[in-house]
Amino acid sequence: MITKELPGKSHQGLSIAYLTNISAKFTGSGGSVHVSQVAENLIKGGHLLFTNLPSEPGPFIKLTRRDFLNRGEEIGVFYIRIDGGSHNDELTLLRMSNAYAPCVWEVNAPLEELRTLGKSEELLRKSNMRRKKLARLVDAAICVSDEMAEYARDELGIKEIFVVPNGSDTERFSPEKRDEAIYDRSRYKVLWSGSPNYGWQGLNIVRELARKCRDKGIDDLLFIVTADGVSTDNIHYLGHIPYAEMPRYIASADLGLCLYGDIDYYRKFYFSPLKLYDYMASGIPVIGTKAGQIKMVIEEQRNGLLTDNAIDDLIDKIQFLKKNSALAVEMGTRGRQAVLEKYNWGNVAIRTESILTGVIERHKADRQTQPQRMLTQATSNYWKSTLSLRVYTGLLRRLAGNSRNMVMRAWKTT
Predict the structure, then answer these.
(1) Which of 76, 133, 253, 393 is the most interior residue, by most CB within 10 Å?
(2) Same CATH fold, 175-343 and 3-167+346-367?
(3) Closest Cα to residue 394, out of 407, 380, 385?
(4) How many CB atoms lie within 10 A of CB 96?
(5) Which residues, 6+ apart, have CB-to-CB distance to 367 below 8 Å?
């Protein structure tokens, strides 16, 4: 356990303001899985978590925006989830309640995801400008992929960058969850899990794959998908399966498909797919699209095969793994071991803790100059349009002598 002495407090562990619009209450969405797992494991590690969400469950310290101004000195670091929407970006302003505490963004997605919601290019342009301005208040970024690290560095201008991929829960997802009764035991079971609402997750590829197999007279394969649809002789639609119930459906399959189609709203594949790590934790081999983190992990761990999504290539590789069952088992075992050793949520929390601790230490070393730099930014016309004078005055009460006088002079002259 790490002991940190924070301004005005002595606390065993870090005091982290974990700010997001997604509750740590587990709901099964990708975002809620990430938030709940990171929060749960940080708390298990002995760290104190503050939240901006009034209904957050568990041992969080719940603060309103006014509370942040009154209790900002209790916070050792601001850790803010940044995703494909702009709402969380504004939470960065709360770091102004304690100029001595650094701010770290957890970068999950670019704002270009707004295009998938039908938002205008003008709104996207303005949102990107806003995000880049807010990034000036950020000391470091923890990114879920190399592609998001490049985004944070090159587009947002954040200088200190770290990559921490997603993971899986090795107790929830396990080969021991296999249930032979839920599928047709006489056929080779190929599972696609994901959201049918996102075209790039490859459900259309699986449907075409099933059709092609049927046309070719390949009748020993059963494609299983977690989506609604009309089942046929070789594709079985499970409908929506809650994430908490997925472990037995994954572990009972022979092979997991991690396929992604073209992403037309952003220039490259940037995801850290949860399904990849849940397949691996469940001990099944993976056939994945040759892109981004999927390619990196499968090449590194040798837990499956890569594809260019061509239907004939997929058929060949599925049949290869079916015929070479010993190799498929080895791949599944290697995947499970990789998650036990590296790609698990406990490790994500440990790496996050280590990074936050390092950022805090470096921030403290520069403590004499850092507050003045942040406060100079706060006095610009940009910040004047964002912070009310009352909020601004609240910040001043936390500052001593020279800093306070400098800020007041700046406010009067701008």
Answers:
(1) 76
(2) yes
(3) 407
(4) 25
(5) 100
User: What are the structural domain ranges in the chain?
Assistant: 3-167+346-367, 175-343, 373-414
How many angstroms separate the CA atoms of 260 and 204, rounded? 10
> H-helix or E-strand containing 333?
helix 325-341
pLDDT exceeds cutoff 70 at 128: yes
Residues in the chain: 414
Whole-model pTM: value is 0.86
Provide the pLDDT for residue 375.
52
**If you average pLDDT over every residue of the chain, what do you get?**
86
Q: How far is CA 406 from CA 73, 120, 388, 394, in A?
A: 20, 41, 18, 15
CATH architecture of the domain 175-343 equals 3-Layer(aba) Sandwich (3.40)
pLDDT in tens, 237-294: 999 999 999 999 999 999 999 999 888 899 899 999 999 999 999 999 999 999 999 9
Q: Which fold has domain 3-167+346-367?
A: Rossmann fold (3.40.50)
